[in-house]
């Protein structure tokens, strides 16, 4: 019988883990007691600089910047106010470089940093290969176009796989809710830079072209605040690199912080080997978790996951129980399709931090696809108790309740998910899963309507096209089924179901050549599929008889 495509699909949660990033040293309160603007205001009012510092500490960065601007209008210019304003403007657009990482189309297609074009199995993220850890097969767990299983948590690296052609790279994949930037430097970084420019009606706060970097490099406290302003607020990596190089030279190459910043600049410019040298040098001077995470990012971009794993494990020897390092190991195993090892490390994360959303979501998703919906339900209920309240969670709760035979909660969970959906892609996912529930209870008319509503919300939903084709085949509408399957296979060439169903359909109507071509594509997408292998064997026997 023809297979229904697209295993039921769990959502990932878009909740970024909180981390304390490495920053420039804070301004000392001793230097803020009395500024060059005169004595504190009389009465109950606060001195303006102290008030600005108070706003900064309470994360009211816009008010802090406005107060500093007023102070800077009075002669002579106050260094403390200038430094505080640069830090306030930086904090307004600050993004942690460790968590914010999205590979652009240019980096993926025009990548010249490949170490080996044909890597050994288990040593590359580009060719994750078959499941090495006994995880669920693609028949049960959906995969991305690179062959990796869908994760339980949305991260930039899991939004889509590495495309093999430029056409696939430019076409927005169904799992990514936003189009990929052309390059990583033109993505979030440029958007942040332009948004920050609009916050100043008089133009930029600091005119970088007129700055004498050599002078500022000799003042370490000002230099660090200025570097973060240039790097994050202005997004001018080359000027930031010039300042960092002069500052580290002034510090006689003994300040690890500047080496990390130079490494970040090199990484942003795509000079990964130079970035690796800087991070390694910084680690020799000062052991820091952040530096280990930056260095691991470099190795992952160079497609050396095994080196990154060894680095994380060495880091755990020096920082036992560090959650970010254990989570980094789990992520790499998951991307390498080693699901069982990833689950073990996510459990280790929960031993250290039992409110870690990513670990709970990934373990829950792994249990669901391992045919243990009751256990998955416990993990998703835990997320609900922690205050996560979104469409994805209720979608997953609805699926777990259905497959755990708790039918009373299924439809109410899906109703809540539809109510909380923030965009059409999320609504499409919920209707698609409702279609699976309808197939499960035998109501094929309801299933047909649900899959149609999926396509109304998201016209590129390959799994819905495939399942509609199966329903059309059951009704005997061969031509409609054929058209739907061709659409599904062109939208998602990495899925085996449309190819297999098309092969079955073509074989039934006697078109053996097309059937054989589609069966070969199905086998390429899922080499372990027994039904495809049997079909190819039958077709070869037919051809031999001819």
TrEMBL record:
CDD domains: TTC8_N
Compositionally skewed regions (Polar residues) per UniProt: 156-167
Entry-linked SMART domains: TPR
Single Gene Ontology BP annotation: non-motile cilium assembly
TPR repeat extents: 462-495
The keyword Cell inner membrane is assigned to this record: no
Keyword Oxidoreductase: no
Region spans: Disordered: 127-169
One Pfam family this sequence matches: TPR_8
Entry superkingdom: Eukaryota
GO annotations of cellular component type: BBSome; ciliary basal body; non-motile cilium
Protein name, entry field: TTC8 protein
The species this protein was found in: Neodrepanis coruscans (wattled asity)
Name of the encoding gene: Ttc8
């Amino acid at each position: 019988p023809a297979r229904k495509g697209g295993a039921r699909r769990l959502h990932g949660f878009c909740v970024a883990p909180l981390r304390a990033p490495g920053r420039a040293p804070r301004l000392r309160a001793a230097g803020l007691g009395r500024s060059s603007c005169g004595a504190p205001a009389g009465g109950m009012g606060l001195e303006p600089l102290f008030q600005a510092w108070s706003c900064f500490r309470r994360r009211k960065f816009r008010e802090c910047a406005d107060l500093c601007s007023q102070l800077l209008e009075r002669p002579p210019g106050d260094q403390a106010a200038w430094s505080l304003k640069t830090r306030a403007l930086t904090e307004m657009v600050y993004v942690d470089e460790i968590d914010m990482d999205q590979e652009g189309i240019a980096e993926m297609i025009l990548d010249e940093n490949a170490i080996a074009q044909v890597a050994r199995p288990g040593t590359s993220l580009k060719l994750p290969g078959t499941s090495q850890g006994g995880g669920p097969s693609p028949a049960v767990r959906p995969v991305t176009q690179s062959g990796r299983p869908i994760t339980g948590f949305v991260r930039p690296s899991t939004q889509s796989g590495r495309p093999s052609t430029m056409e696939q790279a430019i076409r927005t994949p169904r799992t990514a809710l936003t189009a990929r930037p052309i390059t990583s430097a033109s993505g979030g970084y440029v958007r942040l830079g332009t948004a920050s420019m609009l916050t100043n009606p008089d133009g930029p706060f600091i005119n970088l072209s007129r700055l004498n970097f050599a002078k500022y490099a000799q003042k370490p406290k000002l230099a660090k605040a200025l570097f973060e302003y240039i790097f994050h607020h202005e997004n001018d990596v080359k000027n930031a690199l010039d300042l960092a190089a002069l500052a580290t030279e002034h510090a006689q190459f003994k300040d690890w912080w500047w080496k990390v910043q130079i490494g970040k600049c090199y990484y942003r410019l795509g000079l990964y080997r130079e970035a690796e040298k800087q991070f390694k040098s910084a680690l020799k001077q000062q052991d820091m978790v952040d530096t280990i995470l930056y260095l691991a990012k470099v190795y992952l971009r160079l497609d050396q996951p095994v080196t990154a794993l060894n680095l994380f494990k060495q880091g755990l020897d020096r920082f036992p129980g560090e959650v970010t390092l254990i989570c980094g190991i789990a992520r790499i195993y998951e991307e390498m399709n080693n699901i069982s090892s990833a689950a073990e490390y996510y459990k280790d994360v929960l031993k250290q931090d039992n409110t870690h959303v990513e670990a709970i979501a990934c373990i829950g998703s792994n249990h669901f696809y391992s045919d243990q919906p009751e256990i998955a339900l416990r993990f998703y209920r835990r997320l609900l108790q922690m205050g996560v309240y979104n469409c994805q969670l209720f979608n997953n709760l609805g699926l777990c309740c259905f497959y755990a035979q708790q039918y009373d909660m299924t439809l109410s969970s899906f109703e809540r998910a539809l109510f909380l959906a923030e965009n059409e892609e999320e609504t499409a996912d919920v209707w698609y899963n409702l279609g699976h529930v309808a197939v499960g209870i035998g109501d094929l008319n309801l299933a047909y309507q649900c899959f149609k509503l999926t396509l109304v919300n998201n016209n590129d939903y390959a799994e819905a096209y495939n399942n509609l084709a199966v329903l059309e085949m059951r009704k005997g509408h061969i031509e409609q089924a054929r058209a739907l399957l061709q659409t599904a296979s062109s939208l998602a060439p990495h899925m085996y179901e449309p190819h297999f169903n098309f092969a079955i359909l073509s074989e039934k109507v006697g078109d053996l050549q097309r059937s054989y071509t589609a069966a070969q594509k199905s086998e390429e997408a899922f080499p372990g599929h027994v039904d495809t292998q049997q079909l190819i064997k039958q077709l070869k026997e037919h051809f031999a008889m001819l």
